[in-house]
TrEMBL record:
CDD domains noted in UniProt: DeoC
Catalytic reaction annotation: 2-deoxy-D-ribose 5-phosphate = D-glyceraldehyde 3-phosphate + acetaldehyde
Gene3D superfamilies hit by this protein: Aldolase class I
Pfam families referenced in this protein's UniProt entry, alphabetically: DeoC (PF01791)
Protein name as it appears in the record: Deoxyribose-phosphate aldolase
Amino acid sequence: MADPTTLPKKTDQQGLRAFLHGLPAVDQTGAQERAARLASRSIKTSAKAAAIDLAISMVDLTTLEGADTPGKVRAMCAKAVRPDPAVPSVPAVAAVCVYPDMVDVAVDALRGTGVGVASVATAFPSGRAPLEAKLADTRAAVAAGAAEIDMVIDRGAFLSGDYAKVSDEIAAVKRACGPAHLKVILETGELATLDNVRRASWLAMRAGADFIKTSTGKISPAATLPVTLVMLEAVRDYRAATGRQVGVKPAGGIRTTKDAIKYLVLVNETAGADWLSPDWFRLGASSVLNDLLMQRRKLSTGVYSGPDYFTLD
């Protein structure tokens, strides 16, 4: 029997639709040009060193493959705590993200380190499952020790205009999270327009999201600068309207230090310095970590490390 404490409350579909479609339209060309202009900013060497360490501290180191094993997860957790074993001053990453059945392995490996454990849930990456299955997935991950849950919205429902269903499911998953934070994945590559990205961002925040996240990393395009710009504007405006701060996580397609720093500039210039913290901004980009470490080593030694110096994840 369904648990009445976690069943969705029925949202006013007409009122929600009126609100979302009443949001200001996004100037797509303007968003693209502003994102490109901010991405072209030059960073001085001293600022670059600080930006690299900040970016490392914002990484969610992730493994979400069918072939994941406890050994692979433990190795990833070791890297999360000490990204460069030869240089203790390198900060730990923000969190590791795994499937629900690997949460207990990650929790055990990271106990006492300060690195968080996140888990995808709600029929990741498709989001196509009955609500009770999504809630059971969430509860299992939280019970195993996950401090963060990454859920995916039902894009089919959103694109067909059933905003109330999407909102109600987010709210129900949020209740099932208990003390865990909820990151809501919009899968922006399937939303087609920046107007939809803005609407999905506001919908998720109103329904209780602690973070809004661009992508699962399983489809292309994943994170882009214009999409992230629109999401940062949304969290900025949402805090101004409600007083509640919500985080942002671009995920997928961020592969180089240059890419990561572009996102940090975007955060600072759009939402503001209040979001320049792992508490409010994350990079879902495991592949970028090695490049950040290589660039950090280059700044301190003047030479690049060999391509096999850091572990491959």
